[in-house]
Specification:
Layout lengths: L1 E5 L6 H12 L2 E4 H10 L3 H12 L5 H12 L8 E4 L5 H13 L6 E6 L2 H9 L1 E3 L6 E3 L26 H15 L1 H8 L3 E5 L4 H12 L6
Parallel strand pairs: 1-3, 1-4, 2-3, 4-7
Antiparallel strand pairs: 5-6
Bound molecules: BIS(adenosine)-5'-pentaphosphate.
The site of BIS(adenosine)-5'-pentaphosphate has 35 residues, from helix 1, helix 2, helix 3, helix 6 and strand 6.
């Protein structure tokens, strides 16, 4: 199963990708997570990406495409993958198509998560993240059972620097300008399914499983 999860910041792509990846034993490739890891490790790539990310702008296509190409070369992705937050521009989508064709692979489905702007702002401003294992929480909708530390690894939770009001505004604008055109791109390829992301995490997941037509396991 090779999937792309598309949608504005905060619609719940990462939350749902984690659930599908765990349930169906396929890999999640989140360019946001990969870039944040590079920033934390102060790699050359991280230093280049840092400022763009903090401001809520996109990291240059060449950087992100290189990252994803490297991941797709990894044999652990042979079972399938979920691309979370990639592609985000038409040139990224075109590069992805070329990379897959060169490997004789294809995408099975692109899911477009839809949530109102008001709800997105609520979700992003209340999000708390684990800087170590990347688990995601929400102060109101999905609080950690262990207060301000991560349930999985015990690290202190943080608020992402791009979850501040100014960066959220920029990210939403960048989404409309550069990422929303991908809806049409994938619609023309007959790969797109729209999904209402405004329900509870569990309901969205159930509807996602139906949209993907994958059998439920215990
Ligand atoms: P990235 O990390 O990909 O950020 P994003 O796309 O803006 O997406 P988010 O992680 O903010 O949201 P999400 O949809 O995954 O929602 P989540 O599940 O966390 O990218 C960060 C930056 O990296 C970019 O701005 C850019 O600079 C750079 N970058 C990344 N990819 C790039 C690319 N391809 N090209 C160029 N640059 C790139 O949920 C959000 C919150 O809501 C959480 O608190 C969660 O608990 C809560 N929540 C989730 N679902 C529900 C629900 N159903 N009900 C209630 N609350 C919910």
């Amino acid at each position: 199963m090779r999937l792309v999860f598309l949608g504005a910041p905060g619609v719940g792509k990462g939350t749902q990708a984690d659930k599908v990846a765990a349930q169906y034993r396929i890999r999640k490739i989140s360019t946001g997570d990969l870039l944040r890891e590079a920033v934390r490790n102060k790699t050359t790539l991280g230093l280049e990406a840092h400022e763009h990310m903090d401001q809520g702008k996109l990291v240059p296509d060449s950087v992100v495409i290189g990252l994803v190409r490297e991941k797709l070369n990894d044999p652990s992705h042979a079972n399938g993958f979920i691309l979370d937050g990639f592609p985000r521009t038409v040139p990224q989508a075109e590069s992805l198509a070329k990379v897959l064709v060169a490997r004789d692979l294809h995408l099975d489905r692109v899911i477009n998560f839809r949530v109102s702007r008001e709800e997105i702002v609520k979700r992003l401003s209340g999000r708390r993240s684990c800087p170590k294992c990347q688990a995601t929480y929400h102060v109101e909708f999905a609080p950690s059972k262990t207060s301000s530390v991560c349930e999985r690894c015990g690290e202190t939770l943080v608020q992402r620097s791009d979850d501040q009001p100014e960066a959220i505004e920029t990210r939403l604008r960048v989404y409309e300008e550069q990422t929303a055109p991908l809806i049409n791109f994938y619609e023309k390829k007959h790969l797109l399914s729209h999904l209402n992301g405004a329900e509870t995490v569990e309901t969205v997941y159930q509807n996602l499983v139906k949209a993907l037509a994958i059998p439920q396991t215990a």
